[in-house]
Amino acid sequence: MSGYPNDEITNVGHHLSVSNGEWNQQTIYDARNVLLTQHSVDVSQQTPEQRSGKIVKPPIYPNHILHPEIIPSLDEVPAELIKRRHKRFNDPSNIDSFEIEMPLAIASSLQDELERAVQHRAAQDRNHDQTSIPESADSANNLFQGVFEKESYPTIETIEIDEPLESTSRQNLPRASIYDKSSLREAFQRIKIAGDFDDMSHIEDLEDAVGPLLRAMVIREKYMIFSLQSFPPTVAKFLTKTLEQEDQSRRASSTVRANTEPKLRTNSGGTSGQIPPKHTIPSIPTRTIPPQVSPNQKLPIVESNLPIKSAAHASDDPHPFHPPVIKRDEAFNIPLLEAADVCVKAEKGIYRLHIPDDAKGWVQVDYPVVDRNQFIDDYTLLSAMITDGPLKSFCYRRLQYLKSRYELHCLLNEVKEWAAIKSTPHRDFYNVRKVDTHIHAASSMNQKHLLRFMKKKMKTSGDMHVYKTKDGKLMTLKEVFDELKITAYDLSVDMLGVHADRNTFQRFDRFNAKYNPLGQSALREIFIKTDNYIDGVFFADLLKEVMSDLEDSKYQHAELRLSIYGRSIDEWDKLANWCVRNTMYSANVGWMVQIPRLYDVYRANGITKNFQEFLTNLFKPLFEATIDPSLHPDLFRFMHHLTGFDSVDDETKPEKPIITADMPHPEDWNMKDNPPYVYYLFYMYANILTLNQLRRARGLNTYQFRPHCGEAGAVTHLVTAYMVAENISHGLLLRKSPVLQYLFYLCQIGIAMSPLSNNSLFINYNRNPMLEYFERGLCVSLSTDDPMQFHFTKEPLMEEYSIAAQVWKLSSVDMCELARNSVLMSGFSHEVKMYWLGPEYQESGVAGNDIRRTNVPAIRIAYRYEALCEELRLLGNAYKSRQDRKEKDRLLHQMEKKSTSVANIEHPVLNNGKHESTSNLPKPISSTINGNSGNKINMSRNPTTNVKGAAFHKQAKDNLQSILDNFNAIIALIRVDDPQLNPIKDQLPRILTNTTDDFEIRVRAYNMVRAFESLLKLVSDLKDQAVLYDFRAINDAVKAQRQRFKNQQSDLDTKLISLRDRLALELVKFEDEYANKSSFKIPKE
Asked: Residue 779: helix, strand or coil by DSSP?
């Protein structure tokens, strides 16, 4: 047993104690007594022998399952459990026979169903303790058979992956029988859609939606990989498999420059860090599948030829990983690294890494970088996608389907889920790990806590100088309150005025004023600021009390946000000194830094000259502390406990919601206007990317980017967050954008929601979309935001859960799933998460869940995973169907071209004017781009665009030519040119003149219809081509020819109008003749 205070998990490999046996006995008693309403009726129907407890008939349960009426005594329980461990369901037929042996009368009783579910789950858990199942490469692929039935997913080994050997060793670990496909099939009831799944025609807008959705997922994968943030491995494998033939579509995300790996040299001559081979700047290999790891996990670069054995598997102990025991006094005793021979230079607002080169001086390190122009193209594309009508309809229907599917799942499997968690020893909602992933340190205490603290300080530190006025006068705490004419006795929570009420609804300015106790900014500076006259002593003492409350609760954790404003270069040093000096450490607390978007305020007050100075104040100290820790020793130590960055402010401020290529770079942004939200997030992301690459090269922890987003303002804020953020806070506006909501689901982007905060500011509690997100399968969790403003109790996170459970009728399984999501979203280290969630928490599906720690049943995890795989399978099949359709259309087009050539030979006269009618058609894009035109655009970076552009142009030209040719043929066929019939030609029914002509007219009309249909399909193909390949190059080419198209427009309109008028006159004439002349006779000569 570890000395760690949170170590409670029992080693199930040893004999269970008597207390566990008592629990097992009590569990069965509780399961039998769930529905007591039928007990009296059942007793009345029993025989005297049954009422006496004597069983005359042979048992109907197998010997290794405890019969509900033959429960062993307390002394027999440990021995019985040990005996049951040696038996397991090795063969799925055992389960089938177990179910068949149950009589129908018992199976129809809900009470007995609960008993069987509890016993079945207990048998599987006990069987897992002694017997291990070696998992082959094929069984590792079982979970993906829900995605592709006909063509299974490749195993991990069949894809090019550059990761340690521990991923291979994980496949040979024991799995519980519930993880096996045969057992999992029997675990719960599923909803299946009958019919031909390969027929996509019944799903409206599917083929129009699949291209943009895949492109959007590839875009996020690229930005997550570049910045060393996490991307779901299930989705990464799906994209690799689906787009394996489309190299161009993923070239930007999965292919990175792979030059020689430069090493960071220290000033002493060796490589930087503790292990010499680990400090090479890594390059992402082709088609790398990123593991789902915490950004706070240390990721040193390890030579691939070194055998690595995961610490999780180094011992036979099923719970080997425990968080490191760090005493508060030793938390910041971190040895400093030697200085690395590397420098950073800001280039257009983005810091770049440079290393020395003997021949060229300082050269830029070759690592993944993000280009602003490419970011703008991706952002513009995603912004256009969220307004596309067919795409919105498709995503909305899929989201509604997911919600309905979850409701059916609960109706069918709620009892089994309840039985699974009831059979789990010790664990319940109160003692599962839950993290408050969105809470601000300045308001992390409730209003009563702040009031008590202020009264205590007035009594104990009243004579302490705590405030310095603008004129330089020093004031004691007693003098500050005397000036306000307030005593400690007078203070009350109502007088503090820090709690939000109905007057703050839709008034963010009033909410910000609530941070000032008694409405006085001086009190805020004294009590809840780190940089003040007393160096933040009061704030440190207050937060230590908050941390003490969290430690007392043991299972509640928080990621407190401290503020860095970017006003001066020494802010980071002051904050780090405050943390180290006051030993601000707790095993229950992680630290994040929030950056308010207040550049316009600083510029108006003359604090900063341009936006580049703002960025320099934010990131330059971080790079210096990472490169040479001796320059900022306290900051280097504080960064070890830092988990991520946040961007905060009022999103409803008016702004230009888009970013364009002509926007000034940060060094040129010297106007007083505040940059838009996307501008802030792009430059923060780009610099965090460089910082993460540098810290990973030095073997240090990396950071998440988790901004406030979607609480109010424009929906396009969520587009930016989708591209660059690990997860977000709030996300209310996702309810207005089905496309983004569906993408957030597919990519499993975390959303920390605060319904109580939203209820006071932007949306009523009953209208909050949190429950809808959860039912549809989005990765959501509950958080408090600002307990000082919104909560009343000592445990604000539990208050948040309890209110949500009451209002939305959440079950214990639902709340435990939300708690598990909060741990996954948090920035706590990988080692800590392995203890909280299980050593295999990074695995997909059921294999990554340990019910003994999370209290989330495997049934719920399997349902979530299978639902996601089904959505991915739908998109994969649709993409394959679209590719097959394109091939069929190509072959059909060739056949139509041959038939048109034959028809032209039969009617050569009809082709007069053919070249004249089509001479003004646009030339192929490739010919204009690569020819001698004055507007040349280099398309060499994507040669596929030239070929496909020419093919699309040729298809459009052929279709238009086919329409004109067939129309001319029809006009020629209905004319009567025989001189003998001239006297009466106006009286002849033209169409009935010749049956052969009539048949040919019908064929020509059919050909015109087919050509029009081909043109309509061409529009969809052009759209997919632009989305999946090189949107920017095609867009540039279209712009270059725009003037030429405009010049042709008037001529084309004139010809079409003339053709329309002529057609209209002919049709009117035919209709009149046919209506007025019912029969005609040809006169004899």
From this structure: coil
